[in-house]
Amino acid sequence: MRHDIAHITRKLAAALAVTTALSFTTAAAADGGINAGSDANATSRSVHPGAELSLRRQIVIDQDTIRLSDLFDGQINAAAGITADTVVAYAPEPGRRAIFDAEWLARLAHRLRLNWRPATRLDRVVAERASTLVNGDTVRDTIARELAERGFGEEFDIELSNHNLMIHIDSSLPGTVGIASLSVDPSSERFNAIITVPAGDPRAKRLTVAGRMFAMLNVPVPVTTLRPGETIRADDIIWKPVRARLVRDNTVTDTDDLIDMEPRRALRQDTPVRRADLRRPQSVSKGDVVTMLYQTSTMTLSATGLAEGSGTDGDIIRVRNRQTKLVIDARITGPDRVEVLMLPQLAANQGANQGTPQ
């Protein structure tokens, strides 16, 4: 009996010892967890103190790299060694832009332990690289000067194959253009050139451009739109260079052929004029009362009529005899005067007019 009691006592003591050990272990673990949490919080407070950074959504960069201070406003607190001047990305090429979205920014903030988190998936930064712009006009002018120096003359119109040529270079560089090489085919009026931007710079961009060169010719053109009935004066004309290949045989190239003439139809401003579009000022207008004459070496017959057309000296128009209502052909000889071409057309009115023997 005593043996059983002793055995039971030893089991209770062992159980108590195990329970005590487990209790101590649990307490120690709990205490360790609390301490670890405190250390983590302390670390977090050391990395993310103060207000959160503010995202700069639109930036312009004038250098090759992007720094933290380009992306964020505010006091930057991050992992050891990370400052506002830390480079985080390459800048886009001059004149181009790059977009840093919320996912990229979140990864950056996590990696550098920044005091910032994206508010929404729409958070982003649009970075644009500042540049010096060289456009097609600058390139054309440079090629034209080079052609003049090579003896092609200055009267050329340069047309580039790339009508929308735009060259972006670093904003710190001048927008000048140099010619590394230039070849010309006079028969086809085509050229090829290698240009450098900026000129004379070892860092210059080298580009190949092609185009055509057109010989130019100065011709007189209206300074404003001229309409029928208007007499062209000297101050209505200016000289304008146009492509020689567009000047035809019937194109007016002398101001003497324009002055004191009248347009047959509207002449557009700054547009070469064709000879067929001109006439001398009208001596007779439609509806005018005109004197009709028929003359021979022995007599002169006259009558009055209504002009059914308009014209200038030498033009043939139709005229209606006011008394007989006959319509005849007559040549304009001066203001409100016409010459009958055939006597029988006037003979019906002969009795009503005075004949004058010669």
> Stretches where pLDDT falls below 50 for ≥5 residues?
1-48, 345-358
Approximate shape: elongated
Listing every helix as H and every strand as E from the N terminus to the C terminus, the arrangement reads HEEEHEEEHEEHEEEEEEEEEEEEEHE
Largest sheet: 5 strands, antiparallel
Can you characterise this structure?
This protein has 358 residues and is α+β, with helices and mostly antiparallel strands. The protein has four domains: 54-129; 133-215, no CATH class; 217-279, Type Iii Antifreeze Protein Isoform Hplc 12 (Alpha-Beta Complex); 289-351, Roll (SH3 type barrels). It contains five helices and 22 strands. Strands 9, 11, 12, 13 and 14 form a five-stranded antiparallel sheet that branches. The protein has a five-stranded mixed beta barrel with strand order 17-18-19-20-21. Strand 18 and strand 19 form a beta hairpin. The longest helix has 46 residues, at 2-47. It starts with a helix and ends with a strand. 19% of the residues are buried.
Key traits:
5 helices, disordered N terminus, 358 residues, five-stranded antiparallel beta sheet, five-stranded mixed barrel, alpha+beta, Type Iii Antifreeze Protein Isoform Hplc 12, disordered C terminus
Offer a quick outline of the entry:
The protein has 358 residues and is of the alpha+beta class.
